[in-house]
Known about the structure:
The protein is α/β, with parallel strands linked by helices. The protein has 3 domains: 12-432, no CATH class; 448-561; 587-625, no CATH class. It is built from 24 helices and 7 strands. It has helices at residues 2-10, 12-31, 44-52, 71-83, 94-122, 125-136, 139-145, 151-166, 169-180, 189-199, 203-225, 234-240, 248-252, 282-297, 306-323, 336-342, 346-366, 374-399, 401-406, 408-444, 448-457, 469-479, 497-509, 527-539; strands spanning 463-466, 484-487, 514-519, 541-548, 551-557, 587-594, 617-625. The strands form 2 sheets. The chain has a 5-stranded mixed sheet with strand order 2-1-3-5-4, sandwiched between helices. A two-stranded antiparallel sheet has the order 6-7. Helix 15 (306-323) runs antiparallel to helix 18 (374-399). The longest helix is centred in the C-terminal third of the chain and has 37 residues, at 408-444.
Amino acid sequence: MGRLTAWVREHRDFVILACLFASFRWLVLLTYRPGGYILDFSDYYFYRAFAQLSHRDLYPFVNLWAAYPPLFPFLMVGLYRLSALVPVWNGTGVWFYTLLGSVLLLFETGNLVLLYLLALRLGDGRQALRVAWFYAGLFVPVYTLTGWFEAMPLFFFLLALYALVRGRYVASGVATALGFLSKLIPVLLVPLALRALWERRQVRAMAAYLGAMLGVVLVGVLPFLATAPRLLLGPFLTQAHREPWESLWALWDGQFSYGMVHADIRNLADIGGPPMPTRVPCLLVTAVFAVGFLFFYTRRLSWEEPRTQVAFAGLCTVGLLLYSKGYSPQFAVWVLPFIALLLPNLRGAAYAVLLALFNTVEANIYFIIFPKEHHLLVAVVLLRTLVFLLLGGELALVLLPPWAARVGAWRRWAAVGAVVLTLGTAVGLAPGLVRAYFRESLARNPCREAVAYLGEEAGAGDIVLFVRQDTLDLFYPYLWRQVSMRVVDDYAGGEGLARHVEDQVRRWSEGREEVWLVLGEGDEALPVAQAAEAALEKDMDQAQEVQVGACTLRRYLVPQALVPPEGPAQVGSRARPIAVPASLAPGACTLEADLYAPAAGERVSGLDGEGRVARDRVLLGTVRWP
């Protein structure tokens, strides 16, 4: 306890950061959902559905196959069964999501601590604090924590790397095994550990490392070897039966979707069979990456140095992501720790922000908003591949210091070039994406036929009235240049709804030739719609009613449009011309005269032929036009 207290005092600034780091992320887990306003989605929903199968006596690696090694699936089941003891809230899995997120937050906080400890091995306390602040400020780890379990295997990966740097080989082997039992990526550290130990000729340590790792793996899989050994191959076989996704190789195969396993995890026969066919020359690609790996692996580097070990681990991680036939946005968290450790500068920040931007465009914009615009995915994949290649070059130069001195300036310009290329690509793609968005939005618009009809029939001086904001939103982006649009307000205050609506209609129709009333699905039953219809029929004549798609369009002629331009005529004055709108359709026209008191200028009621009050106008007769 005394040593811990002394450590906390010595690293007080980091402890403050770690507290803010953990509290910020925990509150994000409670109050935000991944996807933002675009779409709420995360793998947490799949995790809960997977764990709920335990109520049917279906368990992973017993009578279910899984795409993950055993450790995380059983953690899911355990946390779900614990959360099921709490009554559900509003029909959601809030308790499971909160519990799972809180456990993963422990691993994520551990990742920050391990990065700080690794950075202390690479430099002084000031540099280590900079690494911690750099990682804490990254977006992708926060976002990934809210929807995916990547923090857990990454923790074991970093723990194994830290133990290796410290020379704790048994602990490194145990951590590597736990990482392998969570996800396959941590096995990358095995060749690094063997190379570092071989360089020191520490054969016993090598045997201890392998023994510890294999022993823990055996303990993890032993319970299932006797019951369903074939199911243990699920994590490997599912990768073989998955088509390439979101990678350079997926583009090569003409695949523009995310990685799907087209099988039911309850169908144990679905994990067998031949691998997915591909046009990618897999043997050639594998040979190229193998040569690159052996180039660095066989060089006489300072394998006992922490910086060499960290850089080689990072280079292998980047190489694996480039080699893998599939890529998911959460995979970026495997690269970011190495950017924080070895590039905690402006150049590293540029690469980290670019990766976050690519992830957002790929997962939140392409797949949700523009799934048919394949060129957007092509651009993202190519740019991301370029950034990975540049990062691989940065890590390779850490391993080859003489080469780094020759290309120092080019490293800075490479980062600048990546940023400029990304911005240029965004500017080039933006106009086409805007057009595609309008086109696809109109295709999904339930009032698309009415939008087209109004676009053809409504004149530039017309006004279109709506009784609901949601209905106006369906028309406004397409017609705002052509016509004026208003939503009739339904708050009457003390004057009554009918009078309030009538005042709005008269004010907005003043000086107009035609007024349109658009009623969407369900709008006609609203009191404000009925008041608007009454106000329009009181002062105007309905010229047309048409049902177009899901919308009803009513067209009204404004009588004031027929008033002579000099103003109202006095009784007994000479005849004056009446301006007829060019848009008036041929046929019979009814002429009415509005009556005003000369002194006050207020409307007065007129009488019809039988002496009854005829509103505030007098019927003059009917003429034909033209």
